[in-house]
Amino acid sequence: MVKKIVLSFLLLINISLVFSQQKTISQKVDALLKQMTIEEKIGQLTQYSFDWRATGPITVKRDQEEAIKNGKVGAMLNVLGSKYTRQYQEIAMQSRLKIPLLFGQDVIHGYKTTFPIPLAEAASWDLEAMELSARIAATEASASGINWIFAPMVDIARDPRWGRVMEGAGEDTYLGSKIAYARVKGFQGKSGDINAVIACAKHFAAYGAAIGGRDYNSADMSDRMLWETYLPPFKAAVDAGAATFMNSFNDINGIPASGNKYILSDILKGKWKFKGFVVSDWGSIGEMVAHGYAKDSKEAALAAITAGTDMDMESNAYRNNLAQLVKEKKVSIKLVNDAVRKILQKKFELGLFDDPFKYSNSEREQQELNNPEHTKIAREIAGKSIVLLKNTPPFAKVGAGVLPLSKDIKTIAFIGPMVKPLRANHGAWAINLPEIDSTYIVSQWKGLENKLGKNTQLLYAKGCEIDGQNKDGFAEAIAIANQADAVILSIGERWDMSGEAKSRSNIHLPGVQEDLVKAIMATGKPLVVLINAGRPLIFNWTADNVPAILYTWWLGSEAGNAIADVLFGDVNPSAKLPISFPREEGQIPIYYNKFNTGRPFDNNQHSPYRSAYIDLPGSPKYPFGFGLSYTTFEYSELKLSKKKIKNTENIEVSINITNTGKVFGEEIVQLYLRDKVGSVVRPIMELKDFQKIKLNVGETKTVKFIIDNQKLSFYNEKLEFKSEPGDFDLMIGASSSDIRLRDTFELIK
Ligand code: NOJ
Asked: For 221, which DSSP code?
């Protein structure tokens, strides 16, 4: 009893301490706000980029220097390294009120240590790993002076032509929301820590729905599609405590996101009660003029601030117009104050007023940027992200698949344009740090060398370029393949072929690479193809003819080692595709959680009157959730604790998974549901849970899932998130198209 009283007393003290601290910050913010001129306030709402083309002794642009000194800049981006961030902060300290700058940066998949691109990492379905990689990225960045990370990108993407598909978690809302949550937590860390930073969920909203996959394009969709498919990962980011949001470039049903009151004020700041601040995307406020939504920069500024965009990145729309708009009483000073308050609040919370140079610490930077633990983890996560797409016996032989390769192979030919380059493994959105060379990146060649002893001879030929039509290198590649006992061919997309503004109408393997595959296959040697890319590519001949294929995405600085780990079986691949791979571009968008239509394409195959193409099957080449292992898993004993439930009750689902193969492995067990009849039509299946489990040879584990009312609910016609009584299908599978166990249950009134 005494213990209980003491505990509650301590809790009370703790709560009041937290409260008084919060009160202190908001009091400090208010006190500061009172001293600020309108120009200084607008300064806090203004963000500029460092001109990274400027090299040499002039590191700070003259006009920026003046603006910062005059309190007209609140945040910078693209200032890299403790030395330069310190330089900028010193200038801010010369301003009248000495308000420290925020330093934002696109830390998309690592800082110096580069992790797999986010889409690749999503293939690991390993939430802890993704949280950890985000934490490491933030730790390195924060030591370099960065206190604001422009990630995670949580846009759902169903169109692989869109280059930015590489930056997100793929096509699925459930998986995407879990990943959004994990990444926000990882980036931000623990408030108050030396390496805690603020994250930025982007791009709000529906950026991934750009028409035809053309970057920056319009998103035109029903409200229900918006709520059901595109918004949940953003809500998950709010739930995880994301400090900031970034506008998207697109218009949503005709209203540009930066001036979209429905999205920003009604949903984000209203319904979701988001307390952080919203930054525009680069120039997106000004772009409302090009959209034809605002007549000029002044109207654009008015639309943006009124809708709820707090900070202007690189448009100069606020800086040039906001004071006048306040004077003309078109914008209330309260609106401006509210935006400034939120930004100052974050600066106080980060501890920047106590120590503006807290993040620009060259000693810590040295340490963190060379931390071997980070490299080790990058290698592990890269291994977890590699998807085994195919592993059949070489040619007519029966027995095991080509992979894993034996370390005793005498001669291996390692061929392809991706074998030796370093940068190729980083992919798009890697950070090019000034004054740091790239030798810390492990090329695929080096990875193999590291793995193999002197007994294996490694032969190399480039074969061809990534793009272009030149086949001159084929002869040399064929010659070394003929000398080898096995061939590994590494092909794919160059790092600058996916990413922002890198939409492609043709997502087949570029250039003559697939012809190279054909030429090497013709040698009759056992062949493994590695496909490195920032999106799902199309490679039908390879998929149908080559015995072993690993999808290696862009894996980051440890790519070479991680690929070697998987090739030689030190790591058993366990990743599963977070996005469907189309057979041809004409199938796009293709995603697993589609509606059935009145004439489903995969039923009634004999009727021509179905929702299908007459020249292609209805299924993708590789489905969502697909990925093989060097072992096999058996699914059995599906049990449901109840077959009828009320919406206040749960069902406990259990299944047994057994490793029936010859090596240790990890399996991602997926739970899908289908609501058979709804007041609005429901998808044929939806991922509602998953678990990643480790199994030794012969081991069986029982996996348990809980089905609660949340999992049965959806946005109805009135946009209420509710379940409806009726029958449900339950599917447990190894992918969306490999359902191993099924059952049904009923939700009763
Ligand atoms: C434009 C991109 O859309 C956004 O994701 C990024 O954060 C900003 N540029 C800043 O680099």
From this structure: -
Per the listing, tokens 């930056």 go with 167
Q: Give yes or no for residue 541 having a pLDDT over 70.
A: yes
pLDDT of residue 57: 37
pLDDT of residue 3 exceeding 70: no
Give the Å distance between the CA of 719 and the centre of ligand 1.
Answer: 31
> Is the minimum distance from the CB of 500 to ligand 1 under 6 angstroms?
yes
Burial of 593 (0-12, 13-18, 19+ CB in 10 A): buried
CA angle 291, 293, 295 (to 5 degrees): 105
Ligand 1 proximity of 90 Cβ (cutoff 6 Å) = no
- What's the 106 CA to ligand 1 centre distance in angstroms? 7
Per-residue pLDDT tens digits for 610-628: 898 989 998 999 999 999 9
Contacts of 82 (CB under 8 A, 6+ apart): 143, 144, 145, 359, 360, 361, 362, 364, 365
In the prediction, which pLDDT does 16 show? 44
Query: Which of 154, 500, 502, 503 best tests ligand 1's pocket when mutated (most atoms within 8 Å of CB)?
Result: 500
Pick the range with the lowest mean pLDDT from 131-145, 235-249, 605-619.
605-619
Per-residue pLDDT reduced to its tens digit, 143-172: 999 999 999 999 999 999 999 999 999 999
- What does the alpha-carbon distance between residue 118 and residue 176 come to, in Å, rounded to a whole number? 11
The CATH number corresponding to 633-747 among 2.60.40.10, 3.40.50.720, 2.30.110.10, 1.10.150.120 equals: 2.60.40.10
3-state secondary structure of 488: strand
Whether 281 is catalytic: yes
- Each domain of the chain, given as residue ranges in start order, spans 1-35, 41-364, 375-578, 633-747
Answer whether 202 contacts ligand 1 (Cβ < 6 A): yes
Cα gap 656→633, rounded to integer Å:
10
User: Does the domain at residues 41-364 carry the CATH identifier 3.20.20.300?
Assistant: yes
Cis before 232 (ω within 30)? no
Cα–Cα distance, 130 to 378 (Å, whole number)? 10
CA atoms within 13 A on the CB side of 257: 28
Q: Which of 47, 202, 284 to mutate to test the pocket of ligand 1 (most atoms within 8 A of CB)?
A: 202
Is 282's C-beta closer than 6 angstroms to any atom of ligand 1?
yes
Which residue lies with its CA nearest to atom 11 of ligand 1?
Answer: 106
Q: Give the global pTM.
A: 0.95
**What span, in angstroms and rounded, lies between the C-alpha atoms of 215 and 499?**
10
pLDDT digits (tens, 9 = 90+) for 683-721: 999 999 999 999 999 999 999 999 999 999 999 999 999
Q: CATH homologous superfamily for 375-578? A: Glycoside hydrolase family 3 C-terminal domain (3.40.50.1700)
For atom 1 of ligand 1, the residue with the nearest CA is 282
The span from the CA of 128 to the CA of 575, in Å, is 14
- Out of 172, 281, 310, 689, pick the active-site residue: 281
